[in-house]
Amino acid sequence: MKKDDQGKLAAWQHLLASAEAGAVTAIMTNPLWVIKTRMCTTTRYTADAYSGLWNGLSRLAREEGIRGLYRGMVPALFGVSHGAIQFMAYEEMKKWRNDLRHSQGEIPKDELNAKLSTIEYLVMAVSSKTTAAVATYPYQVLRSRLQNRETKDEYRGVIDCIKKIKSAEGYVGFYKGLAPSIIRVLPGTCITFLIYENMTQYFKDHAT
């Protein structure tokens, strides 16, 4: 990817790189998400419930074929934008903070990724994750409805699912479970970014 004169990637380049990685991940892992959704929405006493991962994968492939393995794939690809928006927002906030420090003379002009404080990394991680979650959460609702064994036959596809949710539940139906979803992922997000940034700085400081 072409960088600017200072060696920085543009916002759209961060977005594109994240989207490409997310699309590959979504395609490779969609069957696992189908199994996960169905196992989370049943108990061991539910008739025909999957007993485990391999049982679920083999039965899904045998009973529903490729279509079953990739049920909910379209919403999952829409969901690629989640990671793309998150990383773009995070990197743009870091760039903005470093540009501000450059202008104030706190760091050298040629320092593109100066170490920030733990609080700054946490604020950026939380802000970027929350922004991405709010912007893209409806895809998770659609994917869950299409992958859930109990509701999969109620919808003929993504468009039909969107219409029925909007008709029966209104726009709020697309955001069911948003708050607990954000609260659930924020600790992991903060830890991931803190470790990533600190390891990056460690290797940069100790590079030969």
Structure write-up:
The protein is an all-alpha fold. The chain has one domain: Mitochondrial carrier fold (Alpha/alpha barrel), CATH 1.50.40.10. Helices cover 70% and strands 0% of the residues. It contains 8 helices and no strands. It has helices spanning 11-40, 53-69, 73-78, 80-103, 118-136, 138-147, 158-169, 178-205. Helix 1 packs antiparallel against helix 4 (80-103) and helix 4 runs antiparallel to helix 5. The longest helix is centred in the first third of the chain and has 30 residues, at 11-40. The mean pLDDT is 86. Keywords: Membrane, Repeat, Transmembrane, Transmembrane helix, Transport.
Oligomer: single chain
Instruction: Indicate the percent of residues in helices.
Output: over 70%
* Shape verdict: elongated
* Rg of Cα set: 21 Å
Determine and state the CATH class: Mainly Alpha
Sheet of most strands: none
How are helices and strands ordered from N to C?
HHHHHHHH
Mean residue pLDDT: 86
- Helix count equals 8
Poorly predicted tracts of residues = none
Fourth-level CATH superfamily: Mitochondrial carrier domain
Keywords: Membrane, Repeat, Transmembrane, Transmembrane helix, Transport
Family: Belongs to the mitochondrial carrier (TC 2.A.29) family.
Organism: Absidia repens
Subcellular location: Membrane
What is shown here, in short?
With 208 residues, this protein is mainly α.
Task: Provide keyphrases for this structure.
single chain, Mitochondrial carrier fold, 208 residues, mainly alpha
